[in-house]
Automatic annotation (TrEMBL):
It comes from Candidatus Enterococcus mangumiae. It holds the Pfam family SIS_2. Residues 30-201 form the SIS domain. The lineage of its organism: Bacteria, Bacillati, Bacillota, Bacilli, Lactobacillales. This is SIS domain-containing protein.
Amino acid sequence: MSLPYFDYCQQLEQKLRIEEPLMEQAGRWIATQIRLGGCLHIFASRTLQGVAYEFWQQCPKILPSQLIEHPAAGIYETLEGTGHAIIEQINTHPEDIFLLLSNEGRNPAIIELAEWIKAQGHLLIVITGFDLSRSIKSRHSSGLRLYEYADLVLDNYATLGDAVLTLPKFELAICGTASLATQVLLQQIVYFAVLHLFESH
């Protein structure tokens, strides 16, 4: 029996490897801000909340981090104005750096958060489905999407509906990879961040 999902993931891995310079840069930026006394703040859209939580739980103590909670489990993220409920829970210092995760990057809540982050002068790293996000319309009145606020964008190659395989003879798309790709990118960023921190000592 063939393993089409494994085959797809193998191809995806090759695409992600191309982003090595961006992962290294993200790690370097995080390490720099941590050395200055900053904290890594992490927030994810509803579909990537589990990834964000796992990443935050596994973050080594050498990388001070804070998970930003999504009010009401993110069910209102498509409504303009809901980003303010997210922002109200954040306590920051000038040296802090932010990491936002969203496959589509078009919902008002995360866009309003990104706008606030940049208004405060913080560095912003975004993981998103870059081609997907560019191909769809923003749900925010500004017309902007998340990646347009980012200082650095990494691509998780998310597809619309996050279904990458079809069953022969059936009109059914199944099997997502966005969470897997996002976690791989995050873990490699952590590796680079810790490496840069130790090299600076």
